[in-house]
Amino acid sequence: MPKTQPLLSSLPQRIQLLLLRLSYTLGIVLNSLYILGASSIFMEGELKCL
């Protein structure tokens, strides 16, 4: 019983770290996609103006 106790107590922390890392990478991916989309729209607008 004492052997499983530390494992259970350390589990939520690991999950929290994993979620934090996932959300961080997801945010970076979404941010880069947004920038790419905005720049492509801007380029299209510039081409139409020309």
Could you estimate the helical fraction of the residues in percent?
over 70%
Count up the helices.
1
Mean pLDDT: 80
Uncertain segments of ≥5 residues (pLDDT<50)?
none
Main sheet specs: none
- Give me the secondary-structure category: mainly alpha
Task: Tell me the radius of gyration.
Answer: 22 Å
Content of β-strand: under 5%
Q: Can you write the helix and strand succession as a string? A: H
User: How many separate domains make up the residues?
Assistant: 1
What's the β-strand tally? 0
From the N-terminal CA to the C-terminal CA, the straight-line distance is 74 Å
* Principal-axes shape call: rod-shaped
Q: What labels describe this entry?
A:
50 residues, mainly alpha, 0% strand, membrane
Describe this structure in words.
The radius of gyration is 22 Å and the shape is rod-shaped. It has one domain (about 1-50). The protein is mainly α. It is built from 1 helix and no strands. The longest helix is centred in the middle third of the chain and has 46 residues, at about 5-50. The mean pLDDT is about 80. The protein starts with a helix and ends with a helix.
